[in-house]
Amino acid sequence: MVRHNNQLPNNLTQLQNLIKRDPDSYKDEFLQQLAHFETTLEIFNLNPTQYNKKLDEQAMFLAQVTQCYQNEMKTFPQKIVDVLKTHNSTLHNEMRLSLCKCLILLRNKNFITAFDLLELFFSLIKCQDKNLREYLKTHIITDIKNMNMKHKDMKLNSTLQNFIYSMLRDSNTKTAKLAIDILIELYHKNIWNDHKTVNIIADVGCFSKVTKVMVASLKFFLSRDEEEKAENSDSDDDVDPRDTMISNKFNKKTRKREKMVEKVKKIAKKNKKKKEKAPLFNFSALHLINNPQGFAEKLFKQLESSNERFEVKLMLLDVISRLIGLHNLFLFNYYPFIARLLMPHQREVTRILQFAAQASHELVPPEIVEPVMKAIANNFITERNSTDVMAVGLNAVREICGRCPLAIGEDLLRDLVQYKMYKEKSVMMAARSLIQLYRQSMPNLLHKKDRGRPTEASSELKPKKYGEMDIKDHIPGSEVLLDKDNNTLENEKKKGNKKKNKNDDSEDEWIDVASSDSEINISDSDISEDEEGEEESEADSDVENEEDNDSEGNADDDKEVDGEETQEESISTNKPEKRKILKTKSSKLTKEEKEEKIKIAREVAMDKIFTDEDFKRIEAAQIKKAISGVKRKKHVVEEEEESSELVKLSDIENIHKKRKHDKNARLETVLKGREERDKFGYKDRRKNPNCSKTNREKRKTKTYQMVKHKARGKVKRSFKEKQIAFRNYLIKQKKMR
């Protein structure tokens, strides 16, 4: 091997490459560079404020080749550490950063422990160097992540966690802010996502005297751990609603019948999305708090005595409301406090209404929530305010009542419901959404005309008292599986009868006309009743005829539900005593029939293991129970969703506006509809659109004055005109000769 000793002392990159290939051959050169480094380091210690390029290059060179000469380099990491500890604040920024890079390189080769490096880096955070702080923060997070990549060393993690927790209590603002940032980042990366980390952030970070640390901790509890995924299950055939729509299969296709089919599909699709949607915990860190009641009380005490900015107070209100709603806490002083802020002119008032709704749950006594409801009703839902303010107030009442149905009294509810006939659409739709909510939860609080058409599902609703829980000892709707067994037995009997009578006369092969006619008549009556109900729901949207149509609806619904259930049970032949109970003659079941139905459902659940097909039948039956009471309006159907842990701000700010009908608005919709559509009109036969057109095509774009003489030629000429034209032609030909 050819050695260039004269060039190597000046070319450290080449020497580094050669040493990594053959350490033994270049040991003398390495020792020479090590001696140069020690000499340069002694000179640098005399004046550490100046940047020393030679020391920078030599330190990086030695850090690169440390693994080749481990015995000679035992003291090298400690020398770098001593320089940084001694002159941490007086060092030049570039020099300090380069020495930190050397230590990180040595840490990657395991020549220095993670704890020692972490302790040094936290002492360097106090330096006035923003780039260095970001660099050290990135390294600490990456290093801890790499240590926990393959397996978690609990002992080392515990040591590092205790050190960072102690740094979180440091009086220095930058140190505490770096500690909280590292903890939050490691939690989001699922490295330190245990309850210990969350509780340290809650107990220390949220009550820190440093505003930046407190705000970062509050944002941690308000941030979302999982992004909401878009719902892409748009197929209508996932849940098969054929059991509900069987009566429409062979009947004449009409517009009313198609509407009913679409309505059934819409409900089936919505229930499918609800079932497939995984539970989304938007703030799962709040689930890991050991003492949520004490944490909420301390936060509220801090809020009452806080002199922070209004935005910080809103964050405190948000965290407290989420804690109350998530853990069903009792913090009675919170509601009068937030009621004082509920004024239309208040800044961020919609968010404050959101916090009031989030802090509501079923275990809050109604008299405690009463100040909030009165403040909303008196300050928002009055005709002296604008329609948008009234609509926002009604939406807030709906969100609170969705989580705490007993929060509003019967008198106040009926007063608010009267806005269903208000002249402005935004207020009217907000009031109707409140009606729709109580139709599904507690219809007895509404006036009789507002309860909607009675259905089997609404008759099964039981109003719950304060603190009462509805625990089922059976699967609702499982009694329909009894019909499935009966249908299979009947089909087998029919097949047996067909085989037995195969060689009989042709007259014996006819199906019983009476039974088939009865089935057809039942389905027709069912559809006709639904058509009447559909017309009634359409008329219900008209303000003038609303009361009349509601009174007519109750009379027709008894027939409707009777028709549906008669159709469903007409094919049952086995177990006549149970079939008689399931078959109802009115929309309201008696108490004995309900008990017998529950008994049958319990027996079915005990006798068999349900399959996916059974659950589909149960779900379709539950849809059928509620189908006659569902409104045709799209927005009302979409609002029938289970209340989630987090109240969406868009639900409170959802204001229905009238569409603009001026010329510009109509033209905008026309142009928007023409997007992604081929240009309509006459298409010529030219393959190349840039080539010239024929005279006939050009004539279409000319003005009438230019082509009117040719239009005259199409008129049929008389015999006299033809003679004159022919004579002129002959004279012209004669002159040309």
The fraction of residues in strands falls at: under 5%
Q: Unreliable runs, pLDDT <50, ≥5 residues?
A: 225-239, 278-283, 498-587, 629-643
Can you count the beta strands? 0
Number of helical stretches of at least 4 residues: 34
Query: Which sheet architecture does the biggest sheet show?
Result: none
How far from one another are the termini? 110 Å
Radius of gyration: 41 Å
Percent helix, as a range, is 55-70%
Report the mean per-residue pLDDT as an integer.
75
Structural class: mainly alpha
Q: Which overall shape is indicated by the principal axes computed on the Cα atoms?
A: extended
Protein model, in words:
This protein is mainly alpha-helical and 737 residues long. Among the domains are: 182 residues, Leucine-rich Repeat Variant, CATH 1.25.10; 194 residues, no CATH class; 38 residues. The protein is 61% helix and 0% strand. It is built from 34 helices and no strands. α5 runs parallel beside α7 and α7 runs parallel beside α9. The longest helix has 29 residues. The chain is extended and about 125 Å long. About 17% of the residues have low confidence.
